[in-house]
Specification:
Strand 3 and strand 4 form a beta hairpin. Helix 4 runs parallel beside helix 5 and helix 8 crosses helix 16. This protein has 17 helices and twelve strands. The longest helix has 21 residues. By secondary structure, the protein is α/β, with parallel strands linked by helices.
Length: 342
């Protein structure tokens, strides 16, 4: 039995607790300072998670943020990062106070960042921030793949990838968290896994826009019936660009064709917040208008990522190699109507 602490009580962190528990581990989920009301709701309502709309096992303990440091000061075997990408620096501040050498950190968060004017994966960002706090021998793994949180919480068959530069660490985690319904592969290509898991959110918005882009002169009824040809074309082109993007930043091309790339793109494209935003953009809405009118209080990871890395990507990369990505980045960052140069 391992003592696993999950920081962040959102959908994915809470769902990830389910297979961890089924492996007979001791699981505590600690909310961020913004999640006190969420924790109270879960604890007062028989562990029903209001976002997952699922009752989680009573053995999963939910604690408020005020308990975090006390819990981290105990003998923790694994620390799981379940916060959003904008909370990474906060996450490091919290664990830095008590981090012990080689304690596994598991990164569920998908995203990229700009650090010192360079594109950075979130695992590298965590490592660099901890090193600045005087820590060494930092052990970070990333888990990525086509995993909708509610499905995992309800024990639907799910496949994912555990990546660490040291395959022994990936194998160690695999043995701790895998179940009959939560199957895990291992990889040492942590760069490729993180890059793929992040940028697929941008491309899933593009695929979500396929109905509106399918024929600008056709009626809405015709487009809704026959847009799949366009969607298929966008999927093909998206994967091609993802391979070049991941390779450009030091990841392996074959990683894109696996669960963290193609698999995750499929899940995001057929349904989810990114593809929904893409539909509005394909229908001709400007990003800011669509966000305000339809998705005001909903996090759209692809749009957040575009705003974070877009200016750097538009400056550094060749637009002829990434026409789809550049189209979406300009749509989000410059608030322009989505246009594809077919």
């Amino acid at each position: 039995m391992k003592k696993i602490i999950i920081i962040g009580a959102g959908a994915m962190g809470s769902a990830f607790a389910v297979p961890c528990l089924d492996n007979k581990n001791d699981i505590t989920i600690v909310g961020t300072y913004l999640e006190d009301n969420l924790i109270e709701s879960i604890n007062s309502n028989n562990n029903i998670h209001p976002v997952l709309k699922t009752q989680l096992p009573k053995e999963i303990k939910f604690e408020r943020f005020e308990k975090l440091q006390n819990i981290l000061n105990q003998n923790v075997d694994i620390i799981v990062c379940g916060v959003s990408s904008i909370g990474i620096e906060w996450f490091v501040q919290q664990i830095s106070k008590s981090y012990k050498k080689k304690t596994p950190i598991v990164l569920l968060t998908k995203g990229l960042s700009i650090v010192d004017n360079e594109l950075s994966t979130l695992s590298d960002k965590i490592k660099n921030l901890l090193e600045k706090e005087g820590h060494s021998e930092i052990n970070i793994s990333a888990i990525k793949g086509p995993c909708l949180a509610a499905g995992l919480a309800n024990k639907m068959r799910t496949g994912t990838v555990i990546a660490n530069k040291n395959l022994k660490e990936s194998q160690y985690l695999k043995e701790i968290i895998s179940t009959s319904y939560y199957s895990t592969e291992i990889s040492e290509d942590i760069n490729g896994i993180e890059l793929s898991g992040a940028i697929k959110n941008i491309y899933s918005m593009l695929i979500g826009a396929s109905e509106g882009l399918s024929n600008l002169k056709a009626s809405e009824e015709i487009k809704s019936k026959y847009f799949l040809n366009t969607a298929a074309s966008l999927i093909h082109r998206s994967i091609s660009e993802m391979v070049e993007f991941v390779s450009n930043y030091g990841g392996k091309a074959e990683t894109v064709y696996g669960l963290a790339g193609l698999g995750d793109l499929y899940v995001s494209a057929i349904g989810g917040r990114n593809s929904l935003m893409g539909k509005y953009l394909g229908d001709g809405y400007l990003y800011k208008d669509a966000k305000e009118k339809f998705m005001k209080d909903i996090t759209v990871e692809g749009a957040q990522l575009a705003l974070e890395i877009g200016p750097k990507i538009l400056q550094d990369l060749n637009p002829q190699h990434f026409p789809l990505m550049f189209s979406m980045l300009k749509t989000i960052c410059e608030n322009k109507k989505l246009q594809i140069d077919w």
